Amino acid sequence: MTTIMITGASRGLGLEFARQFYSEECRVIATCRNPKKANELNAIGDIDVHSLDVTDDKSVANLADKLRGENIDILINNAGVIGQRDGFGRLDYDIWAETMDTNVFGPMRVAEAFRDNVMNSEKKQMIFITSRMGSITEAVPNAYVYRSSKAALNMAVKCLSAELDQQGLIAVLFHPGHVQTDMGGQAAPVTPQKSIEGMKNQIVALTHDDNGRFLSYDGHQIPW
Ligand SMILES: NC(=O)c1ccc[n+]([C@@H]2O[C@H](COP(=O)([O-])OP(=O)(O)OC[C@H]3O[C@@H](n4cnc5c(N)ncnc54)[C@H](OP(=O)(O)O)[C@@H]3O)[C@@H](O)[C@H]2O)c1
């Protein structure tokens, strides 16, 4: 049975990842900051729900200790924040630092802590939910904080994909589309169901040749 671990599964895309992989009969390890308040997640069925704040070293280390020796085929680093939508002239450096902590250091902390769980598994996949707003090729002057955090994540994952390539890691960055979640807003064009279905169908078919790619939920490759 394929084991999937998801960060930020309390709502939005993480919750939908948990729902769809559970319905595919995978073992789902869903993580979130407040498991007691994650009613929709707890209602999915027979999944493991654990507490995990990706900005908190102790929280990450505690869960890594708990899950030591368990194989994780697919680690989905999904948790993220928008930070600040304002641009140049109104930048808040405390918010920028917090956003980097969640969107860049968070997924890398989790990747380091759960490296052995993934690398000892059959599939050896680490999925990182980024955004095409992190594409330098497509940059426009807004959302400096969010865009720079996702561009930095892209670089960190590109390094990681090369670092563990010979050991068989498949690290892939996905843009989920502009999706109807708390972050994306209800006017967004893509439903969480469609976004996750698109990514899930690609994830189950990934091969080692995909290591280090930056893909969209609809299968397109995104320019760095
Ligand atoms: N929606 C879009 O249009 C869109 C587009 C491109 C990329 N993305 C990316 O997709 C991912 C999911 O976004 P979403 O749209 O589902 O956003 P969302 O609805 O705002 O949900 C964000 C999730 O991240 C969790 N989270 C935030 N900080 C965390 C932390 N420190 N530790 C653990 N979990 C934390 C939240 O948990 P709490 O419930 O505890 O706050 C929540 O579960 C993000 O990486 C985002 O950047 C989204």
**H/E element sequence:** EHEHEHEHHEHEHE
CATH architecture: 3-Layer(aba) Sandwich
Please state how the strands of the largest beta sheet are arranged side by side. 3-2-1-4-5-6-7
CATH superfamily caption: NAD(P)-binding Rossmann-like Domain
Textual characterization of the structure:
By secondary structure, the chain is α/β, with parallel strands linked by helices. The protein has one domain: 3-Layer(aba) Sandwich (Rossmann fold). The chain is about 40% helix and about 15% strand. It is built from 7 helices and 7 strands; from the N terminus they run βαβαβαβααβαβαβ. It has helices spanning about 10-25, 40, 55-65, 95-115, 115-120, 145-165, 190-205; strands spanning about 5, 25-30, 50, 75, 125-130, 170-175, 215. The chain has a 7-stranded parallel beta sheet with strand order 3-2-1-4-5-6-7, sandwiched between helices. Strand 2, helix 2 and strand 3 form a beta-alpha-beta unit. Helix 1 (about 10-25) crosses helix 7 (about 190-205). The longest helix has 21 residues, at about 95-115. NADP nicotinamide-adenine-dinucleotide phosphate binds near residues 8, 11, 179 and 188. NADP nicotinamide-adenine-dinucleotide phosphate binds next to helix 1 and helix 4.
